[in-house]
Amino acid sequence: MMIDYVELRSKRNRGWPWPEDSFGLTPMYGESGWCRSCGMPLDVQTGPLVLQHKGLTAKGAWVPNWQFDAICLESSLAERLASSFELEMRAVEAPGGGAIDGVMQIVVPSVGRAWFDRDQLQAKAIQTHGSAGSRCDDCRRWRWLPLSFAPMPPPFGTLPPLGVDALTLDVDIAASPEWFGDGWNCFRQILVRRELAEIIAQESPRDFKVNEVV
Predict the structure, then answer these.
(1) Pairing of strands 71-74, 5-10
(2) How much is the pTM?
(3) Which is nearest to 162 in space by CA: 174, 152, 153?
(4) Which tens digits make up the pLDDT trace of 75-134?
(5) How far apart are CA 198 and CA 201, in angstroms?
(6) Closest CA to 117 of 86, 146, 160
(7) Residue with the larger pLDDT of the pair 187 and 155
(8) Is 41 helix (H, G, I), strand (E, B) or coil?
(9) Distance of alpha carbon 201 from the chain centroid
(10) What is the per-residue DSSP string for 55-112?
(11) Which of 12, 40, 54, 78 has a 20 to 30 Å separation from 66 between CA atoms?
């Protein structure tokens, strides 16, 4: 039986990465773990998310600015979720090193080979943007122009239906193997087990809402 997944739609952002030349990517992925031309991570996260203390309210759950694939949690909520769900978590660090007291990050893995039919993605992206996306001249990775699970204001168009790799997930949280974005903005689509998403949204209703996707 297919497990029930939803999108955990972020309603706002809280906290900024330290303003160095990698926008926080080097601490998370290493010097050679991200592309200097398009900003796309080239491998899994190996280091910490680094956030400034200024403007960071460590309460409930939230998504920081710029790092839109990262879900942050106050430690008490992180402990509660870790007791019921299979989640990889890392301590969030401050500039200069050292964990920020009471703040954890859910590291979301990419799962599957493709969540969407490529021809359908291309048609949707061209319909919205006039172009499907582009391949970086340096890292050779393809990135689709922004699309979303449900209608949003421009520049986001609507994604095509999920394919078999997404419909047969059996994890608590997963990110698409496809990357989306423009400029240095790179993000994946994320699906969350409904029970987990509802807990997070209930804890932080100003930060998240549960969005149906299938």
Answers:
(1) unpaired
(2) 0.91
(3) 174
(4) 999 999 999 999 999 999 988 888 888 899 999 999 999 999 999 999 999 999 999 999
(5) 5
(6) 160
(7) 187
(8) strand
(9) 16
(10) T---SSEEB-SS-TT-EEEEHHHHHHHHTTS--EEEEEE-TTSSEEEEEEEEEPPB-S
(11) 78
